[in-house]
Amino acid sequence: MSTSRASNLKAEQPLTTLVKHSLERYFDDLNGQPAAELYELVVRQVEQPLLEIVMRETGGNISKAAQVLGINRATLRKKLHKYGLNNRVYAETCGLILAFLGSGGRNAAMIFSLRNSSSR
Fold first, then answer.
1. What angle do CA 116, 57, 98 make, to 5 degrees?
2. CA–CA separation, 64 and 102 (whole Å)
């Protein structure tokens, strides 16, 4: 983990506290209306960014990501599919980032246009 990311985490509140505050705000915003499918809402809010970050950090490697998450590869693939994520996108993104860093930023416009054309 980079030093700046580590120092930012120290200043942030624990995830449990953030979730608790978000849920309290959610119920306040309902203004007495009944909640629906709250479990799926909360799981989705945590699981999707978790998968995105782990896939990025493992360079899109399903086996490594599954090991980091402590789940089997089939379960990970199912979850990636559920959120419209896949390892090809992460591998491609990691490749573009490495190309950008290797060019010292000189080819940023070309890399950006490649990324946009491949996501269509």
1. 50
2. 24
